[in-house]
Structures are given as structure tokens and as C-alpha cells.
Specification:
The chain has 284 residues and is of the alpha+beta class. Helix content is 35%, strand content 28%. It folds into 3 domains: 47 residues; 115 residues, Uridine Diphospho-n-acetylenolpyruvylglucosamine Reductase, domain 3 (2-Layer Sandwich); 99 residues, CO dehydrogenase flavoprotein, C-terminal domain (Enolase-like, domain 1, 2-Layer Sandwich). The site of flavin-adenine dinucleotide has 28 residues, from strand 2, helix 7, helix 8 and strand 10.
């Protein structure tokens, strides 16, 4: 049963941090699309800190070669933002396909990352784009790579009294090459069974600065360092793509659950990777 004892609605960060200080254990809430369901299933009562009125948390802007996306920016606003589409295209793409229109209009990128699901839509694309998470507390700001923030299912490096302010992402260059391919049971309003995001710089037939992030194949969203190494600087032909697809599968440790078997997930990692390069099936 949902038992909410009080909801605070601060207009700015300072006010939010003061409320945090005065009310230990208070839970931040943005769109509520994860939290309200979790609280409904729990016997605990909760006090909530609604961050959705704080303008600074909804901002999307570019400064000094970095795109900033505020934690309370909704997936709809991110998917439609010209700045995000041009500067971090994979993030616009993942926000544009998560849930359905009603969810995207409420749900936020900060909530998605704080919820720390291994199938969270925004995590692989933020990690592929080398995003840093910006955290704010009474002690000031701290930043870390998004891949270090997500520790385990439902667990993050967020400390008590800390809020996610937003994400800083290097603006991509003109020779950016990347893709985000994910598989679900349906085309829309589906939970990801497997997701593969790749970001790189393309120069002729070679890729550089390759970053690959995978969702739903380990307890948290992971990088694929061995595959990144194989891809970086090598000639992008069928042989390389096949070698990399096999290495990528070997870097995953998917589980079998009610959505899929581990074998199917492993197979799909390779397929989604090949699809990113326009190859549909393994090349012999
Ligand atoms: C029908 C449906 C479909 C869905 N489809 C998808 C999908 O396709 N892909 C997907 O990834 N998810 C999906 N979700 C899950 C959910 O919508 C997303 O994870 C969403 O982005 C959560 O954002 P929110 O603003 O609603 O978070 P909330 O529910 O408000 O909060 C989630 C967590 O984040 C914390 N939090 C929120 N903001 C902050 C902040 N600024 N600082 C610190 N902590 C904060 C909260 O305390 C809570 O622990 C779906 C949910 C539903 C109900």
C-alpha cells in the first residue's frame, strides 16, 4: 500500500539540499514512474522530495564542448532536443524509444540512472558517449564516469544527502559513428532483453576511440574492453566485424530469466552488433 507522509516541492537546489539535511531518509522523486510502483509494493512509509520543479535540473545546454542534460529532463524533452540529437545522438535515441509516449513525458534521465537497472535504457548510451554524472550535496559538486556510478542492480554510488544534478557529455565530432540497438519482446513499451551501444570516430575504413556498452548481459551495464581494443584502429571489414562480434559475446555473462535464456541473449548480442554495421547474420 502506498504510504506517503509528506511531499516537499523545492524550487531550487539550495532549498532541496536544506530539506535533505532536515529530513534524513527522504526520497527524491522526479517522474515517479519507478518510485511510485516500488513504494506501492512496499510496507514502508516515505517522505518525498519532488525535484521536478527545479529549473536547473531540467536544463539542456552546451558549454565548452560539453552537453549538459539535467537529471530531471524528461525522456521526451531529450529525444526532441536538437542539441542532444546533434551532440549525443545515441542518448536522444534511447530516450526516444524507452516506454511509450505517456511514460516518456513524465520519466526522467536522472530517475532512470538512479534506479540502476541493468536494463535501463539511458545507461548504455550515456556510457558509450563517455558521460560523467554530476552529483550535488551540501559539500559541493562531485563528478564520475557514469560507468562507475552504476554498481549493481538497484545500487549506485549516490551518497546520502546527494542529488543527481545532471550529466556532462563530450559533444561528438562530425566523423562520429555509432549505434544503439536493443531487443525487446515488442516494438514499444518493452523491457530490454539485450542492448548494444557503440560510439566511435570514423576515419576512412577505420574506427577510433571505440566505446561499447552492453545492457542486460551482466548485473550492471558493462563496457566491452577487449572488443573495443580489437575494433580500434583496425580495418573495418567483414572479418573484423565477425571477430569483434565473437569477442563481444565472450565478454558477456547473461543470465536466464523469465524474459530470455542466457544462450539467446548471448546470440542476440552478436546479432545486434552485426546489425550496427549493416550485417544481419554471421559471416562465414
Ligand atoms: C509502463 C512503463 C514502461 C517503462 N519502460 C521503460 C523502458 O522502456 N526503459 C527503461 O529504461 N525504463 C522504463 N521504465 C522505467 C522508468 O520509467 C524509467 O526508469 C524512468 O526513467 C525513471 O524516471 P523517473 O523520473 O520516473 O524516476 P522516479 O520514479 O521519480 O525515481 C526513480 C529513482 O531515482 C531516484 N531519483 C530521481 N531523481 C533523482 C535525482 N535527481 N537525484 C537522485 N535520485 C533521484 C528516486 O529516488 C528513485 O530511487 C518504464 C516504466 C513504466 C511504468
Amino acid at each position: 500500500m502506498l504510504r506517503i507522509t509528506k511531499v516537499y516541492r523545492p524550487d531550487n537546489i539550495d532549498e532541496a539540499l536544506n530539506i535533505f539535511d532536515d529530513n534524513p531518509g527522504i526520497r527524491p522523486i522526479a517522474g515517479g514512474t519507478d518510485l511510485i510502483i516500488q513504494l506501492s509494493d512496499s510496507l514502508e512509509s516515505a517522505m518525498l522530495l519532488d525535484v521536478s520543479r527545479i529549473e536547473k535540473l531540467k536544463k539542456i545546454n552546451i558549454t565548452g564542448g560539453k552537453l549538459f542534460i539535467g537529471a530531471a529532463a524528461t525522456h521526451s524533452s531529450i529525444a526532441k532536443s536538437r542539441k542532444v540529437i546533434e551532440s549525443a545522438p545515441l542518448i536522444a535515441e534511447s530516450s526516444g524509444i524507452m516506454g511509450g509516449p505517456a511514460i516518456r513525458n513524465r520519466a526522467t534521465i536522472g530517475g532512470n540512472v538512479a534506479n540502476a537497472s541493468p536494463v535501463a535504457e539511458s545507461l548504455p548510451t550515456l556510457i558509450a558517449h563517455a558521460a560523467e554524472i554530476v552529483l550535488v550535496s551540501a559539500n559541493g559538486l562531485r563528478k564520475m564516469p557514469v560507468e562507475d556510478f552504476h554498481l549493481a542492480p538497484g545500487k549506485t554510488a549516490l551518497q546520502s544527502g546527494e542529488l543527481i544534478l545532471g550529466f556532462e557529455i563530450p559533444v561528438v565530432s562530425e566523423d562520429f559513428f555509432g549505434f544503439y540497438n536493443r531487443l525487446g519482446s515488442r516494438a514499444a513499451v518493452t523491457i530490454t532483453k539485450v542492448g548494444v551501444a557503440l560510439a566511435s570516430i570514423k576515419s576512412g575504413d577505420r574506427l577510433g576511440n571505440v566505446r561499447i556498452a552492453l545492457s542486460a548481459v551482466a548485473p550492471r551495464v558493462i563496457r566491452a574492453p577487449e572488443t573495443e581494443k580489437i575494433m580500434s584502429g583496425a580495418n573495418l571489414d567483414d572479418g573484423l566485424i565477425e571477430q569483434a562480434a565473437k569477442k563481444l559475446v565472450s565478454e558477456c555473462t547473461p543470465i536466464t530469466d523469465f524474459r530470455s535464456t542466457s544462450e539467446y541473449r548471448s546470440d542476440m548480442v552478436g546479432q545486434l552488433f552485426r546489425m550496427g554495421f549493416g550485417r544481419e547474420t554471421p559471416q562465414n
